[in-house]
From TrEMBL, chain A:
<protein>
    <submittedName>
        <fullName>Nitrile hydratase subunit beta</fullName>
        <ecNumber>4.2.1.84</ecNumber>
    </submittedName>
</protein>
<dbReference type="InterPro" id="IPR008990">
    <property type="entry name" value="Elect_transpt_acc-like_dom_sf"/>
</dbReference>
<keyword id="KW-0456">Lyase</keyword>
<dbReference type="Pfam" id="PF02211">
    <property type="entry name" value="NHase_beta_C"/>
</dbReference>
<feature type="domain" description="Nitrile hydratase beta subunit">
    <location>
        <begin position="7"/>
        <end position="98"/>
    </location>
</feature>
<dbReference type="GO" id="GO:0018822">
    <property type="term" value="F:nitrile hydratase activity"/>
</dbReference>
<dbReference type="InterPro" id="IPR024690">
    <property type="entry name" value="CN_hydtase_beta_dom_C"/>
</dbReference>
UniProtKB/TrEMBL annotation, chain B:
<protein>
    <submittedName>
        <fullName>Nitrile hydratase subunit alpha</fullName>
    </submittedName>
</protein>
<dbReference type="InterPro" id="IPR004232">
    <property type="entry name" value="CN_Hdrtase_a/SCN_Hdrlase_g"/>
</dbReference>
<feature type="domain" description="Nitrile hydratase alpha/Thiocyanate hydrolase gamma">
    <location>
        <begin position="13"/>
        <end position="189"/>
    </location>
</feature>
<keyword id="KW-0479">Metal-binding</keyword>
<dbReference type="Pfam" id="PF02979">
    <property type="entry name" value="NHase_alpha"/>
</dbReference>
<dbReference type="InterPro" id="IPR036648">
    <property type="entry name" value="CN_Hdrase_a/SCN_Hdrase_g_sf"/>
</dbReference>
TrEMBL record, chain C:
<dbReference type="InterPro" id="IPR042262">
    <property type="entry name" value="CN_hydtase_beta_C"/>
</dbReference>
<dbReference type="InterPro" id="IPR049054">
    <property type="entry name" value="CN_hydtase_beta-like_N"/>
</dbReference>
<feature type="domain" description="Nitrile hydratase beta subunit-like N-terminal">
    <location>
        <begin position="9"/>
        <end position="95"/>
    </location>
</feature>
<dbReference type="InterPro" id="IPR008990">
    <property type="entry name" value="Elect_transpt_acc-like_dom_sf"/>
</dbReference>
<dbReference type="GO" id="GO:0018822">
    <property type="term" value="F:nitrile hydratase activity"/>
</dbReference>
<protein>
    <submittedName>
        <fullName>Nitrile hydratase subunit beta</fullName>
        <ecNumber>4.2.1.84</ecNumber>
    </submittedName>
</protein>
<keyword id="KW-0456">Lyase</keyword>
Length: 107, 200, 96
């Protein structure tokens, strides 16, 4: 992943999960589910800062990274489902970027 | 598929434990003590927290703000445990918890995760066809209620705080807690008032 | 995102192979083997000999065929054993 760059997201901020696939580049451990890569969501709340699991998993020094609860519309992800249903997922800040443009609001 | 471990796995475990013991890194007593303390955690803890939240608005507020502190007040040692997040159901929103990447589960207040929570089927389907999964539990979300699936991927563990069911007016904490099963705390089920009790 | 790489084996969200496959509602608690592995993992974590993230990384490193044939706590044991060898806590010969 790219070096830490704090966007300092706040609740309500629109974000995009990076469309990045470290697992295609070699050994890694990541906690961002594949189905959210490249997806737009909205920061629901700031959950605090936690040592980066991507480093912890290899016994490396693990600087704390901000963690957010991010809300996503559920149906667009699978092209099925019930309008209004949503997914709420913990995502580390280094996996998020500001959403380039307003997107359809989740719930 | 909660098949028994294969004989070679049983043997491997004992070789590992023997090697660690030989180096003074673990002891049989430590393992037994840890197993006993793990066995003590059960969904009854989460159920009591919910029942109390239904009865005491101030407690509810503090529990939603800090689930781990609330669990500590219930006598649970949260030292070393991940933070506990509380997901408040509302008349228009129901929560369901899954961990698609492994099996993150609020063990401190629910005990060991059941086999199905760790199953490939639950992990893959709960985020994609959650209403179909709920239907297997006989759980129907009322019209107008949105479903929010929590994929527990990182450092928190999550427990559902469901709505208090109608027909429980005047019930005490123990009566209410009895309605709150493990499945309710994960969100695959809703609290159900037994017909006989509701008729009283 | 149709050209996205194939997810890692443990990254199961939405996996098509389980579509409409009923969740087997097995309520059996862990057996003695599972509880012992579980307790051992907690002790090793408490003693700072491994993290839960290392456990997960080890589980995710299990080759696919084995990943799906092992039971839950067998996967844990496989990972813990590999980690203890990787860290030099024990020698590979001791668990062979």
């Amino acid at each position: 992943m790219s070096p830490a760059f704090s966007h300092g997201f706040a609740p309500g901020d629109r974000v995009r999960v990076k469309d990045d696939w470290p697992e295609a580049r070699g050994r890694c451990h990541i906690r961002t589910p594949h189905y959210l890569r490249g997806r737009h969501g909205r920061v629901e709340r700031v959950l605090g800062s936690f040592p980066n699991p991507e480093d912890l998993a290899f016994g490396r020094p693990a600087p704390a990274r901000p963690l957010y609860h991010v809300l996503f519309d559920q149906p667009p992800i699978w092209s099925e489902g019930e309008a209004g249903d949503s997914l709420l997922v913990e995502i580390f800040e280094h996996w998020l970027e500001p959403a380039p443009k307003p997107v359809k609001e989740a719930a | 598929m909660s098949a028994p471990a294969r004989p070679e796995s049983l043997a491997l475990l004992e070789r590992l434990v023997t090697a660690l013991k030989a180096k003074g890194l673990v002891s049989e007593e430590e393992i037994a003590a840890r197993q006993a303390s793990t066995d003590r955690a059960s969904p009854e803890i989460g159920a009591r927290m919910v029942a109390r939240a239904w009865l005491d608005p101030a407690w509810r507020k503090s529990m939603v703000a800090n689930g781990a502190a609330a669990a500590e007040q219930m006598g649970v040692s949260m030292a070393g445990a991940p933070p506990l997040g509380i997901l408040e159901d509302t008349p228009t929103l129901h929560h369901l918890v899954v961990c698609t990447l492994c099996s993150c589960y609020p063990r401190a207040v629910l005990g060991y995760p059941p086999h199905w929570y760790k199953s490939f089927e639950y992990r893959s389907r709960a985020v994609r066809e959650p209403r179909a999964v709920l239907a297997e539990w006989g759980t129907t979300i009322a019209p107008g209620v949105q479903l929010r699936v929590i994929d527990s991927t990182a450092d928190y563990r999550w427990m559902v705080l469901p709505l208090r069911p109608a027909g429980t007016e005047g019930w005490d904490e123990a009566q209410l807690a009895a309605l709150v099963t493990r499945d309710v705390l994960v969100g695959v089920a809703l609290p159900r008032v037994p017909m006989a009790a509701a008729a009283e | 995102m149709t050209d996205a790489p194939i997810p890692a084996i443990h990254d199961l969200g939405g996996a098509s192979r389980y579509r409409c496959t009923p969740v087997e509602r097995d309520e059996a608690p862990p057996d003695d083997f599972g509880k012992r592995v579980d307790a051992l993992r907690q002790i090793l974590a408490q003693k700072k000999m491994m993290t839960v993230d290392e456990l997960r990384r080890g589980i995710e490193s299990i080759p696919e065929a084995e990943y799906f044939s092992l039971t839950y706590y067998e996967r844990w044991l496989t990972s813990i054993t590999a980690l203890m060898v990787e860290k030099g806590v024990i020698a590979a010969e001791e668990v062979r």
